[in-house]
UniProtKB/TrEMBL annotation, chains A, B:
Pfam families: HTH_5. This is Regulatory protein ArsR. It comes from uncultured spirochete. Transmembrane segments: none annotated. GO terms for molecular function: DNA binding; DNA-binding transcription factor activity. The keyword DNA-binding applies. InterPro entries: ArsR-like_HTH, HTH_ArsR_DNA-bd_dom, HTH_MetalResp_TranReg, WH-like_DNA-bd_sf, WH_DNA-bd_sf. Residues 3-97 form the HTH arsR-type domain. The keyword Transcription regulation applies. PROSITE patterns: HTH_ARSR_2. Keywords: DNA-binding, Transcription, Transcription regulation.
Length: 104, 104
DNA sequence: GCCATTGTTGCAATAATATGCAACATTTCA
DNA sequence: TGAAATGTTGCATATTATTGCAACAATGGC
């Protein structure tokens, strides 16, 4: 049971990493190409410390990985399927909501 | 841009609902069959108020729906694909982590 | 070595979540 | 109507997340 619990905690960690609008935007940016902290911070108009922390959170969850290149650190998406998964889930739910509304 | 923001917020809401180990267990229980609050609370060994609140959160996210049947309220999973999505994401990440370890 | 660029971490203030108990609401049935 | 069973909501407390700034760390070029 303890092992099962850990399994669900790991899984919840992945969803926690995805449970923030800005982090989702960051992941979509990373789906196009690798980005360094600085450029991504400029692109999104937020402080680099926030971008750095969020990237580190996404990395802990296993969603992205990084490579240092000189003074900058390049981050890239590990599993692009994650985002397809996100939009698929969203579409299913949207359809369901429409269905419920039309039934009322 | 405002509309795009709302889109990401909606998506983040779905992931927020999934970002808790107990709620993930609840969803898996619901994948088998519909459950009422009371039975699910017994099964999981937590207070019914927590189960009720979590179910309501999952419902707001569009993941489940409910029907009152006498004194009890039956909840059921709307999109079982959501859970497949979870295990798919997890597997991809696990594979990636193994790959990284073997490279070191 | 020194400086510029880039990235990370620590801290503090604020906001959001989790948790459990108790009160209240809804439905059924006698 | 009143009691029993089931669900929901309000409140209080503890934990966690968000955010921005400033300090610190790492790398490369002069």
């Amino acid at each position: 049971m303890k092992q099962l619990e850990r399994r669900y905690e790991r899984r919840a960690e992945i969803f926690k990493a995805l449970a923030n609008p800005l982090r989702l935007v960051m992941l979509e940016k990373l789906a196009d190409k690798p980005w360094c902290v600085c450029a991504l911070a400029d692109e999104l108009g937020v402080d680099k410390s926030i971008v750095s922390k969020y990237l580190s959170q996404l990395k802990s969850a296993g969603l992205i990985e990084d490579t240092r290149k000189g003074t900058l650190v390049e981050y890239r998406l590990v599993a692009p399927c994650i985002l397809q998964v996100a939009s698929c889930a969203e579409e299913t739910i949207q359809e369901q909501k429409k269905k419920l509304l039309s039934e009322e």
